Amino acid sequence: MYQIVPVAPGEQHISGAAGGSPLKKKLAHEGRPLVMAGMVGCVLVLAAVVAWCYYSVSLRKAQLLKTELLDLNKDGFIIRNQGGAVVFSMTFRSGTLDLDSCTKEGSILSCTQSDSGKLNFFIQTVRPKDTVMCYRVRWEELQNKHTVEHAMAYNDSHWYGGAEMATPRWPVMIQGEEEPRPFITSDVYSNRNAFGGILERYWLSSNATAIKINDSVPFHLGWSESSRTLRFQARYQDSPFRPPEGEPAFPELSYRVCVGSDVTSIHKYMVRRYFPKPIKVPSPEVFKYPVWSTWALHKTAVTQEKLLRYASDITKHGFTCSHLELDDRYTADYGEFDFDPQKFPNASGMFDKLREDGFHVTLWTHPFINYDSINFGVAVEKGLFVREPSGELPALVRWWNGIGGILDFTNPDAREWYSSNLRLLKNRYDVTSFKFDAGETSYLPRQFSTLVPLSDPSTFTRRYTEMAIPFSERAELRVGYQSQNISCFFRIIDRDSVWGYDLGLKSIIPTVLTISILGYQFVLPDMIGGNAYPNRTTGEVDDKSGLPDRELYIRWLELSAFMPAMQFSIPPWAYDAEVVQIARKFTELHETLVAPRVLELAGEVLDTGDPIIRPLWWIANDDEVAYKIDSQFLIGDDLMVAPVLEPGKQERDIYLPAGRWKSYKGEHFDKGPMYLTDYSVDLDEVAFFTWVH
Q: Which family does it belong to (predicted)?
């Protein structure tokens, strides 16, 4: 008999023996949770395996993106010191890395893709010595032709280096927001916002890190006060930089970052490794005795009579002289190489008289030939000028003395023509040497061509500095780019006769410290009292004399006495007997105390490249206060100078780093570091201290 069993909703009615008994159905129903649990267990095991694999891959990727003390991510990298603290941070602003394209082989971590396409990116770790770790970084675009930009964070440290500036700060001070612009030599006297005539692609941090941008980079520099970063950018578009001939215009940003144990030792390493060194010390006479220039005193109105009177007055007032510098303008037209017979009717006799009286004479020179000079046609005919982009016509340029052509110092014919004219002058009148003025790339046309194409416009500056080599004993340059091996004096740009940081008295120490860090040690700090330019001279409105303020002149003189060389133009006797007496005192102090020490250090520069004029942190690199002092400096390691740089002051605060110090008054200070507040410094004094061993 069949038994009819009602079918519950959702159940399937199976008839006959195949349906099984109700007991079997009950058992089947009760076994389902076990199956489900098993399935869930399998899923969990599988998930655990997947998670483990993913974790292993992530771990391997994390290890892959580490190299020594550097951690890389898609947006940038950080570097730690041996103690684990972050000392350097770089952010990739123009693109992000595709980390899946990254591999690591030995000390090289490389990637082939970014979010904008193919690239050649690598970081190579190099340990040149136990206390130094370096990282070579390169980001080269292979598809994107626009820009590569990396932003370096300050990391609560102090940075130094870069370029001479019109308003220098020590350490570097980031103010405002500045889009990256070409990092090339410029005349900061005429363009106060530009980078100066002495610059290098090098920065140094109190965190014991340093960065050197490679020569091949079309380098632009900007900054951001809000994010506290320096912006390093490579680009060819809207730029004076050009890719090497025959190569595509893909920008490349490459640099070296080195980390050391302290700021002084890492700087010493970088200078020895990357900067050329001078091959000889310039004339000891220039270190010992003042240079006397006609410029600030006579400007372009100088004549034979005025020069002879100037020399006579130097002797009459009892001053020494390394050489007389006959500045602009002794020629009839700019670009000529002989004396204007109207102003110098007997140049040969003048030189005989000066030689008889014991004076060496140097002459002012420059790279321009004005269109009204007889030599303009000569240079056009010989093809000696920088040309317009087509290369067909000479390019006309405007400079502070008119309009003309500028000699192409990549052209061997132009170099020889210029040098031969200087040699003729030298031999005809027994001229001692030359003051090489200008040379900044800002005097090149915006678009130009040279015989040897310039990928980097500042190479023009380098070529111009080479013209001083045959005359280097007493030669003077005001520009420098990769020119540390030119063994002559480098003059800081013209100063105004004012007290402040804007090319005034306070700007001298930060400027000299900066160019010293850049490897230029034979520094000429321009003329005592400044250039006395109209409307840029403190006190001129009050006394109508046109002279720099008397107190300013004295304080300037005192500071200059502790520089590697001194340079007068406005003479002390233009004021009064007291100023003459103070000037004699400090020229003698320079000769007897400063010059012997400076000459000793100058000899060491040939081997080490170490600064002669040093910041206080050089001997106190664990002292936060020392990193910010911009009104004191060291000569070597053991002579510290603290001049008065404020008007109306006969006292100043002085910071003594740790150590035992003896003041010029004979006082001993053993419990450093310390501040000496309101330390008395009379008008005829400079506070200086020697380190007692």
A: Belongs to the glycosyl hydrolase 31 family.
